[in-house]
Amino acid sequence: MTVSLFLACVWALIATLIAMGPRRFHWPGAWGLIAVGVPLVGWVTYQNGPIWGLLVMAGGMSVLRWPVIFLVRALRGTRDTAE
């Protein structure tokens, strides 16, 4: 296992620990995970190829699904209205 894949596994473990913590730490933890995860996906892709890079990216997107949903909504220009 390469160093980048090992660090991706550590990233997933830290994401799990943040998710089990108090709710007030979720969004700050998500921003930290995003800041570390984006370069990590690039490194995994560089060291192991595009298939592994896509798998790690899909795993990260499944963990951080709400920031991705909010990004897609912002790009589309749609918002939820509860009226």
Automatic annotation (TrEMBL):
Record has Membrane as a keyword: yes
InterPro entries named in the record: DUF2484
Spans traversing the lipid bilayer: 29-46, 53-75
Protein name: DUF2484 family protein
Native organism taxonomy: Bacteria, Pseudomonadati, Pseudomonadota, Alphaproteobacteria, Rhodobacterales
Organism whose genome encodes this protein: Thioclava nitratireducens
Database matches in Pfam families: DUF2484
Keywords per UniProt: Membrane, Transmembrane, Transmembrane helix
